[in-house]
Amino acid sequence: MKKVLLTGGTGFIGSHTAVELINSGYQVVIVDNLSNSTIDSLDGIENITGVRPEFVKADCSVFSEMESLFEKHGGFNSIIHFAALKSVVESVEKPLKYYNNNIISLIYLIQLLQKGGGGNIVFSSSCTVYGQPEKLPVSEESPYQPVASPYGNTKKISEDILRDTVNSNKSIKVVALRYFNPIGAHPSAEIGELIIGKPLYLLPYITQTAIGIRDKLQIFGNDYDSPDGTAIRDYFHVVDLAKAHVLALDRLVEKKNKSGFEVFNLGAGKGSTVLEIVKAFEKVTGVKLNYEIVGRRAGDVEQVWADTSLAQKELGWQTESTLEDALLTAWNWEKRLRGKEGK
Ligand code: UFG
Questions:
Q1: Domain housing 277
Q2: 307-341, pLDDT tens digit by residue?
Q3: Atom 26 in ligand 1: residue holding the nearest Cα
């Protein structure tokens, strides 16, 4: 059986990817320090797939912990590297924490892979590397733009590290996936986006407001150059995103990659404003949302959505779920978490 190490595999995107990998016949090993997720994800993965992946609690930025994991498994040939800190705001306040965690852990993984003779890495990157692109939809050819946060910078630097590594070592192959805005949850509501503390992202804030944990949603700015003045993003279903990881890993395992370092955009290829998301959520759930318009959030770009034609052509990937599916599954997950109405 093909074995793959998922760093950060109990998190939002990691847990959904674990499900799709198991369903595609991969043996999944998860390493996570549980700083932003809980062990309950394993129950969810097991309830959906019938398989409980091996789990190791360890920190990817502590070399000795990763070395022991690699030694125990006789090395890994494939890694999907999700584990990273991801709060834009926190990264501005504590940049060294972000550089230390996100960059060091990547370097250690590469070193351990090299020690074992090489292998495949699928890397979680972000559309943040495009900043505010000049041309929309944005394609992979679009140049890096100055990134608004240390978090974003860690993604850009990580891509550079991976590209340079591949150039110097032909036994390492990389696919970097630039995510736009993944939302939603597994249709079973067994796994979803767990929020520890106050939500930073739009969808969890919406679902927590709808369920009554938050008073009201604040919409950051309605003076952008968009149809209703609110900012535009490319929201898509996390299960579609998870499936893209399987295609990316298959491509590397089957040696179908065209170069040692490839990059793909992953999104719906369509932009929605914040207000459009609010209205769509209200329509699909029947829940009225309390919201107010406030000033712009520092560091936000005005609008960004993906040109996904490369992922379609090369990975054979496109989104299957609609925005409405994604919103409804996010809501069902929130209700499940709060023990209301069940699945
Ligand atoms: N928004 C609100 N109110 C909220 C939360 C968000 O109005 O309470 C707005 C934001 O201002 C933005 C949109 O909703 O216009 C989406 O915001 P998110 O925080 O959900 O997502 P971002 O597009 O800001 O963040 C995403 C990724 C980050 C990445 C960033 C780069 O989640 O990891 O893109 O642009 F760094």
A1: 202-232+270-312+321-340
A2: 999 999 999 999 999 999 999 999 999 999 988 65
A3: 181
